[in-house]
Amino acid sequence: MKSYIVGNWKLNFNVGEASIYLHKLQKKIPNYRDVEVVVAPTALCLQPLSLQIERSKMKLAAQNAFYRDFGAYTGEISFAELAGLVNYAIVGHSERRYIFHEDDKMIAKKVAAAIRNKIRPILCIGETESERSFGETRDVIRDQLLGGLSEVSEEDISKVLIAYEPVWAISSTKDAKPATPDEIAEVVGLIRANLKEIYGAKIAEEVPVLFGGSVKPTNAGAYLTVPGVNGLLIGGASLILEQFTDIIETAKRVKQ
Ligand code: 13P
User: Would you say the CB of residue 92 lies under 6 angstroms from ligand 1?
Assistant: First the structure.
């Protein structure tokens, strides 16, 4: 399986800054066939960057979209509008869940809408610090995974990527603490066990599972070698060209 290195720029870089960054990034990295590099800029950047991106080197992702294709939904952008512009969409990021109150039902509709519009959803799941401390990690992961995938058929599951992002490890969380490879391995094991239960053993092994939360050049190698981890979802470090390219190079080295 390929490695996936996804940069989530969140609400950073305006159109001009994003364009300059993309230009530099494309100059700096070769075309790696076994490392899929993806960047997720703000929605406003997607159209201009889609004209600039060299799709043989990297792909674009949306950070979010609405689940209806069109209609009276003031302020929203649909997956239907993004079709053709992006290959991927991040869905259910913890910032969407906790700041914008998205629940598993809404996230399931977004996952389905992405697939319907030929966009691969990257479904984010992960427990908070307090859920972990109360021993609820297993249940939270199961609920978010089954909830988010509730509208995905066996035929479509191959289009989905899962990202395990423990909220307590995300760099912008207060007192964030990087996860250890053992902590990640345990939860990725749970994710695959749940996938196996719903879709069978073969599919459970084939769904890419990414890790996200305080990923840096210094820990990327260790995280990418955790059994069952197929890539990284990177926030802060993806905004720094040297760090992001360093992580891409690490993914390439780990693949060899
Ligand atoms: P950081 O890499 O800044 O911790 O962000 C992780 C994240 O939320 C990516 O989606």
Answer: no
